[in-house]
Fold this protein.
Amino acid sequence: MTRGKFITLEGIEGAGKSTATKFVCAWLQERAVVVRLTREPGGTPLAERVRQIVLERGTETLSPVTETLLMFAARALHVQSVILPALTRGEWVVCDRFTDATWAYQGSGRGVDAGLLGTLAAAVHGGLEPDCTLLFDLPAATGLARARARSGSGADRFEAETVAFFEKVRAGYLARARAEPRRFRVLDAAAPLADVERAIGSALKGLLSQEVTA
Ligand code: TMP
């Protein structure tokens, strides 16, 4: 059985990732690919409980390192019980965020040490990297305005952050994309939806053709 492909979607808040995730799944299913849609932090019952802890506001203060450890704790559960088994069964895993989000939010955004992030990533999913990462890029002020319009007074711990924080996160994502141009596809999330979907389709076509020629 050929191992499935691992696709991740990344970007700051308000970049349209949720809509794009649905589009990716539908596009693949139309081509008879068995898809497992999942998300981080979350994706298993316990990891979803960790998600609540990191997103809720007004509780104890989480230091940047604590936040990082919680992200990786949720990821360890998710990788072992959902991602690896699905890929081994030959399913394609479409994951709304993965470790690039930790590099961007906790690394670039909060200033957590890169050495620590590298050690945790190796311990939690050494040998597993996405085959393709779609990065939805747009100016932080635009994304944040969209996200806040959607969540109103129910903004979570991250949505309550400043534009300056999201500029650092965005820069972190773009630096990762520059360092790994073969894995990343950077999409202009401020473009009309039809253009974004066309660009996603072209990235997915590339992945499907690798499968055929493998
Ligand atoms: P979501 O808005 O895409 O559902 O993601 C939840 C929030 O969690 C989002 O603000 C980004 C944040 N996050 C991190 O800070 N680090 C991580 O490793 C992950 C996966 C998400």
User: Anything to note?
Assistant: The chain has one domain: 6-213.
